[in-house]
Design a protein that fits this description.
Elements lengths: L2 H8 L12 H13 L1 H9 L2 H5 L10 H14 L2 H18 L7 H25 L8 H11 L7 H8 L1 H32 L6 H17 L8 H11 L3 H17 L2 H21 L9 H27 L8 H25 L4 H4 L1 H7 L1 H16 L13 H25 L4 H11 L19
Helix pairs in contact: 1-7, 2-6, 2-16, 2-18, 2-19, 3-19, 3-20, 5-15, 5-20, 6-14, 6-16, 7-8, 7-21, 8-14, 9-14, 10-11, 10-16, 12-13, 15-16, 18-20
Length: 454
């Protein structure tokens, strides 16, 4: 046994077990990890470049598709990710609680860093072996590696720091909003001059060209730089598995060439700080009053969902007008995530509704494994040339139905699995690697269920 592992045992470091677990955290994690499949399956189905990076109507645009798209973008999109980010912050506090012994901080920090380095490795495996360009594990691992020193901050620091990314995106969105208003006015003035037969300046011509480009994009005409990628994706999805894999790797490189890694880390890190704050006030783990959860849910939903719904309506106008969602996107995402957190706490604490969410507890206890299973099912089984090879562009509603079927099956699988095993297979592997020794796997009698807190 290494000195590090020996030190860990000296301060009684072990996975959270049985009664020490907090039920609501497991339920939140289970709902988040399964719910995220609704957002991921369109990317798995494609067309990625034609629909998700272009005209989202290319995925399918029947009335059912429109209703599904609005629902997902108002209620779900980004919020499952938000819940997981809050949980990472809370999970750090669960871990840090065991660092209060004399040698605890060093041993806990060592274990914490080792766990997240392994999480980073799992995330890279998800990207380059399981072909999932939308992996969140490597982003969360990078954030978590820098998160540990922030655990002792007070609320007066955690909340402002946690809102930095929201403020940043609101300012950037405000700049884009002002720029679009200016372009709209310049375009109108240029058109008026053109209709009056007056000569156009260079700026006038540019305003007309820029506005026309926006109109073309909204009409579904892809930008010239993305046309080759659309053609390559179409060929790859109808070709060999090697071409399919290459397309998925190219999608990852394209996403992160757009600064997605930087923005992803900024978003996740700030939300994790808010997760720490939510833990410190007892909100995330169910210690607030029912009245407080009801008020938080109503206020968060009223502000967040209204902003997101208005954003959907702005996009559905299919006009190059300035949009408020550019400024409200991240604040609204956090608000709706907070509303979901409050709603889940209310469901868990009520005897009448607890049965609705209780099955998600098992899913939360093996969320790591379920996350990988979602990639395997979506990328390899449903849409891969090696699997069913179902076509893309099936429509938002049809894909949501497929996601619902997969989620239901995974939920049943999780509850059956957890009857016989103390954790999911990847949880067991992750824990064994992190602790440096083989961990319990099969359930023996009434053995408590040890699972990592995060």
């Amino acid at each position: 046994m290494t000195e590090t592992v020996a030190a860990a045992h000296a301060v009684h470091i072990a996975p959270v077990r049985g009664r020490d677990r907090i039920e609501v955290l497991d339920v939140v994690r289970g709902i988040a990890i399964l719910g995220i499949f609704y957002m991921n399956i369109p990317f798995m189905a494609g067309p990625v470049f034609g629909a998700l990076f272009g005209d989202f109507r290319a995925m399918g645009w029947t009335p059912a598709d429109q209703a599904t798209w609005v629902f997902v973008n108002t209620v779900l999109d980004g919020t499952q990710r938000g819940l997981l980010e809050f949980l990472f912050g809370a999970g750090l506090m669960v871990t840090a609680a065991r660092a209060m012994q004399p040698d605890g901080p060093v041993a806990i920090a060592d274990l914490y860093i080792r766990r997240n380095l392994w999480l980073l490795a799992f995330g890279l495996f998800d990207i380059f072996v399981l072909l999932w360009p939308g992996d969140i594990l490597h982003i969360y691992a990078l954030c978590a590696l820098a998160l540990f020193p922030f655990r002792k901050l007070s609320l007066r620091w955690l909340i402002p720091l946690g809102l930095i990314f929201s403020v940043f995106t609101a300012i950037m969105g405000g700049g884009e909003y002002a720029g679009r208003i200016e372009l709209k006015q310049s375009h109108a003035a240029a058109i008026a001059k053109q209709q009056a037969g007056q000569p156009l300046t260079k700026d006038d011509s540019k305003a007309i060209a820029d506005w026309h480009k926006l109109e073309q994009r909204i009409a579904g005409v892809p930008d010239e730089e993305i046309k080759p990628q659309i053609a390559a994706e179409t060929k790859a999805r109808n070709g060999t598995f090697v071409e399919y894999a290459g397309m998925m790797w190219s999608a990852y490189l394209f996403i992160y060439s757009q600064n997605a890694l930087l923005f992803g880390v900024m978003e996740a890190f700030c939300a994790m700080l808010l997760g720490i704050a939510l833990w410190k006030v007892g909100f995330i783990q169910g210690k607030r009053s029912t009245r407080e959860y009801v008020m938080a849910m109503l206020i968060a939903y009223a502000l967040g969902m209204v902003a997101r719904y208005l954003g959907c309506m702005e996009r559905l106008a299919f006009m190059p007008q300035p949009k408020t969602i550019w400024m409200t996107s991240e604040p609204a995402r956090l608000l709706v995530s907070l509303g979901h957190l409050a709603a889940i706490n209310l469901l868990v604490r009520s005897a009448r509704s607890n049965w609705l969410v209780r099955p998600f507890r098992a899913a939360g206890q093996m969320a790591f494994s379920l996350y990988f299973l979602e990639q395997i099912i979506g990328i390899f089984v449903i849409f891969s040339p090696l699997g069913l090879h179902l076509p893309g562009a099936q429509g938002w509603a049809h894909l949501a139905l497929q996601a619902s079927v997969v989620i239901a099956l995974l939920l049943v699988f999780a509850n059956v699995w957890m009857r016989f095993f103390v954790s999911g297979p990847l949880e067991w592997l992750w824990r064994s690697l992190s602790y440096g020794q083989r961990q319990p796997f099969r359930r023996v009698g009434n053995m408590a269920t040890p699972v990592l807190a995060t």
